[in-house]
Amino acid sequence: MTEGRNRRPLIAAGTTLGIGLGGFVDGILFHQFLQLHNLLTAKYRKTGVDAATAVVNIEINMFWDGLFHTFTWTMTALGLALL
Which residues contact 47 (CB under 8 A, 6 or more apart)? Predict the structure, then answer.
């Protein structure tokens, strides 16, 4: 490799892709398939509360999960554009 080669663009693309794809793995595997956690599960519980509160809390959790998935998609698209 040459000494003068600038690797910063590749490092930025790889880091951004890693953040996006890592988020996809978390979102798809843990949130969707295994249903182990949502982003705000500790704050807005869906168990141990009355049915109406549980529904509202599930809607809040799904909204924030959607924002998380939007973020991961955006990071992946940005990483591909940088690459």
Answer: 54
Q: What's the Cα-to-Cα distance from 59 to each of 62, 70, 71, rounded to whole Å?
A: 5, 16, 19
- pTM for this model (two decimals): 0.76
Dihedrals φ, ψ of 44, to 5°?
-120, 85
Q: Record the tokens describing residue 83, joined without a space.
A: 């690459």
Per-residue pLDDT at 8: 93
Instruction: Name the most confidently modeled range: 13-17, 49-53, 64-68.
Output: 13-17
- Which amino acid, one-letter code, is at 42? A
In whole angstroms, give the CA distance from residue 55 to residue 71: 24
Q: Provide the 8-state DSSP code for 49.
A: S
DSSP state of 30: I
**Which residue reads 């509160």 in tokens?**
53
> What are the CA-CA distances from residue 17 to residues 3, 7, 40 (Å)?
25, 15, 25
